[in-house]
Design brief:
By secondary structure, this protein is mainly α. Helix content is about 65%, strand content about 0%. It is built from 3 helices and no strands. Helix 1 crosses helix 2 and helix 2 packs antiparallel against helix 3. About 10% of the residues are buried.
Length: about 80
C-alpha cells in the first residue's frame, strides 16, 4: 500500500470498511472489542491495561480517520495527521 497516495489510501479504507457490508460489520466488531472504557481503579495493572487499550483504540481511530478523509468530512483534530 505504500505506493498509494493519501487520497487513494483513504478511498480504499472507505471501500473496505464502509461501502462493503462485511467490512462495516468487521469495523463494528473491532470497535466493540478494542474501544473500551478505561479501568479507573488506580492500580498499576489497570494503568497498564489502559495503555494497551489506548494503543488498540488508535488502530480503530486510524481506520475511521481514513474513512472520514475519503468522505471529505472535516477533521475534528487537524493536529493529528497520521497517514
Amino acid at each position: 500500500m505504500s505506493d498509494l497516495d493519501a487520497r487513494s489510501r483513504a478511498l480504499l479504507y472507505r471501500d473496505v470498511f464502509e461501502v462493503s457490508k462485511l467490512g462495516a460489520l468487521v469495523l463494528e466488531d473491532l470497535h466493540v472489542r478494542f474501544c473500551r472504557i478505561p479501568d479507573l481503579s488506580g492500580t498499576q495493572e489497570a494503568l497498564l491495561r489502559t495503555y494497551v487499550q489506548a494503543a488498540q483504540r488508535e488502530v480503530i481511530e486510524h481506520i475511521v480517520r481514513q474513512i472520514n478523509r475519503a468522505n471529505e468530512a472535516p477533521d475534528p483534530d487537524p493536529g493529528e495527521n497520521n497517514e
